[in-house]
Amino acid sequence: MFDIAVIGGGSAGMMAAIHASKTHKVILLEKNDSLGKKLLLTGGGRCNVTNSIPIENFIQNIIGNGKFLYSAFSKFDNQDIIQFFQSRNTPLKEEDNGRMFPVSDSSKTILSTLRQELQKNNVSVRYHARVTDWNVTEHHIESLVLEDNSIVQAKNYILATGGMSFPHTGSNGDGYRLAQKLGHTITDLYPSEVALRSNEPFVQAQTLKGLSLQNIELKVLNTKNKAVVTQNSDIIFTHFGIAGPAALRCSSFVLKQKEREVPLSLDALPNISKAELLHIIQAEPKKALKNILKNYLPQRYADFICMEYADTKSYQLNDKTLQSIIEHIKDFRFKVNGSLPIEKAFVTAGGISLKEIDPKTMKSKIIDNLYFAGEVMDIHAYTGGYNITCAFSSGHLAGEVL
Ligand SMILES: Cc1cc2nc3c(=O)[nH]c(=O)nc-3n(C[C@H](O)[C@H](O)[C@H](O)COP(=O)(O)OP(=O)(O)OC[C@H]3O[C@@H](n4cnc5c(N)ncnc54)[C@H](O)[C@@H]3O)c2cc1C
Question: What is the 3-state secondary structure (H, E, C) of 171-191?
């Protein structure tokens, strides 16, 4: 009999097991033959382990229920994560936008530190241990059942099975089914941080395929044409729609609208006003429009946005045409129709309802010896180290309070 059984050996489960095992006998159950498969993929294989920005700003980047983690962060926040690794001979470095990576530029370093800590604390790690069911009496888990029908008994349980994106990493939605069996509610599940599809003719014709635009402003509009979110970053046009950081950051806002088509507005030159743009174009009357704009935009985009006027000299453009071209550059409207499937998303939005979890302890309000950690809960964030931090912090809290 163990004191604590942690289900799922990802970021959340490993951190929970490490902290719980300081004072308890812990077993970590992982369905794969290794730990942290998803963690290894993050940051392009370099592991974007956390983000260094101040915690108030940090929480704004957890777009799905960040405030729920105030208590967890008060015990173990991004700075504690940095300290956790640095003090274990795993130096980190900061890159753009506060993103933290191991100096080694390899996720394996982070995983290896976590594994060493599990070993040091005598956590029993059981691989090929897929949990499929519970034995429950009176809101209390007596034991859990593995796929091979064996039973594991513990006094307390921490469910840290992740979401359902990139299912080959092991997180395939098992945790939702397990929580539902115990009476927990699962909120709507949908992809977050995912590329968007579009049926627009220019996408279908692959006119801009492969073209990336840097430092653009992308807005998601609602049915009243009001911006629900604005992202300043880069995008890339693909054969199916748009990808890149700005598109990914917009994705959950698009999908949350549950509309068949959602309008976006793209400002390709957010740092130049319409009046300035007019001045720039009119300052070179004898130049073809596309040649003026190519100093500011990639040539392919300039050609596309100028339409049939690409070769027209600027003095030949009447006011109405000029205004409409400027409008196109500053507020190019196109519709997106959903996204790639959840399997291809970086993060799952939705999860175990937070109404049924105590934020001070991560304890279930339904089952008296069950706790939660990580992406299995209804919490999601932008990429940039925020999701991993949510997993580490909630894992730490669940492990520490027991
Ligand atoms: C390609 C990619 C890149 C990403 N990049 C970033 C990034 O840059 N920044 C960021 O913040 N986030 C990023 N994320 C998201 C981040 O990796 C996750 O949010 C985070 O790993 C979630 O941790 P977790 O422990 O909750 O879940 P997971 O890491 O998914 O771990 C869950 C574990 O539970 C195991 N498991 C599942 N079901 C069972 C079961 N029934 N029995 C036993 N074990 C089970 C799984 O095998 C898995 O090992 C990225 C995700 C992907 C896919």
Answer: CCCHHHHHHHHCCCCECCCEE
**pLDDT over 70 percentage in the chain:** 100
Helical H runs in 61-195? Answer: 70-75, 78-86, 107-120, 174-181
Give, for ligand 1, the residue of 151, 157, 161 to mutate: max count of ligand atoms closer than 8 Å to Cβ: 161
DSSP E strands, 251-339: 262-267, 332-336
How many residues comprise the chain? 402
Distance 200 CA to ligand 1 centre (A): 33
Q: Which pLDDT value is given to residue 160?
A: 99
- Asked if residue 64 has its Cβ within 6 Å of ligand 1, the reply is no
Q: Is the dihedral of CA 300, 301, 303, 307 positive or negative?
A: positive
Cα(88)–Cα(291) distance, integer angstroms: 56
Give the pLDDT score at 207. 96
Ligand 1 binding pocket includes 146 (Cβ within 6 Å) = no
Domains of the chain plus CATH, in order, are 2-191+347-401 (3.50.50.60), 196-339 (1.10.8.260)
363 lines ligand 1 (CB under 6 A): no
Structure-block tokens of residue 84: 């956790």
- End-to-end Cα distance, the chain: 16
Q: Tell me the per-residue pLDDT of 321-338, one tens digit each, with 9 for 90 and over.
A: 999 999 999 999 999 999
Q: Does the beta carbon of 38 lie inside 6 Å of ligand 1? A: yes
CA of 131 to the centre of ligand 1 (A): 16
State if residue 43 touches ligand 1 by the CB under 6 angstroms criterion. Answer: yes
Confidence at residue 44, expressed as pLDDT on a 0 to 100 scale? 95
At 332 the pLDDT is 97
Residue 378 · residue 179 · CB < 8 Å: no
Pocket mutation for ligand 1, best pick of 346, 357, 377, 386 (most atoms within 8 Å of C-beta): 346
Low-confidence ranges of the chain (pLDDT < 50): none
